[in-house]
Predict the 3D structure of the following.
Amino acid sequence: MEWAWIDALREAVSGERARGVKLVTRDLCASHGTHPDFPHLPAAFVVEGAAQLAGLLVGEATGFARNVVLAKVARARFHRLALPGDGLDFAVAIAASSDEGALCRARVTVGDELLAEIELVLDVPRELRDPCNRPVGVVVFGPHNAAIRDDFVRLCEVARAV
Amino acid sequence: MPPPTSDVFDTVRSVLVETLGVEPEAVTPGAVLKDDLGAESIDFLHIVFELEHVFSIKIPREELFPESVLNNPRLRKGGPIPSDLLAELKRTMPYADHAVLDADPRVERLSSLFTVGAVVRYVAGKLPAATS
């Protein structure tokens, strides 16, 4: 994860579910150059939000000891566009998991309105290789993203304590 | 509650239609997941998760798709499958049809083990016996 797309975490229950938010700004929409006359956040970036939250959820469950890779967008159904001013609320849950990976389901809402339903398969590879086929160590949630990783861990600890 | 055994094929077909994005007509008992239905390696993990969910079963790692045997370094592309590995495959995958490998034991033929029928037989074996 080279950049944190989720603005803030709202809930995290270890190994089960997580909630996070992403605020959509006009500048953000314009920067992608998609439909300049009708600024909206491209759907792929909505999927990215769900994938990052799912990655945190699955990574935390394994103590962030191994890389977590988005392997497949199994399903993504959009009910409307993400528009400037929207506060995207991502609710991600682990539907199934093993030591090889996880199947996660996400619902993205804006207020009471359903924006998207997304199903993701995340892989937890035993060995990760770069494009030159060289082994890569554990790189997920490195120093650049330590804050969101630590927030996630803290929320899980709070949930355990309740 | 898991579906009765007689419905296993229909349910497996639904799972494969969803996970692989294929037409229901393409999912026949003899269809090979990789060669005929276009399954890629990550799809096998996805299929396992969906089967576990719809049938309420647990599929231990390596049981349905025994990677350790399939990724054995002794298996060389274009080469024959050593007889002891063939025997190991028969032992670990009793639900698969090994006829193709028996006739032509080459590494390229390994995918023939992973048919829709093999998945159906595996799942049926995991379900409680149907009550009459």
The two ends of chain A are 30 Å apart (CA to CA). Chain A has a mean pLDDT of 86. Chain A has one domain: 8-161.
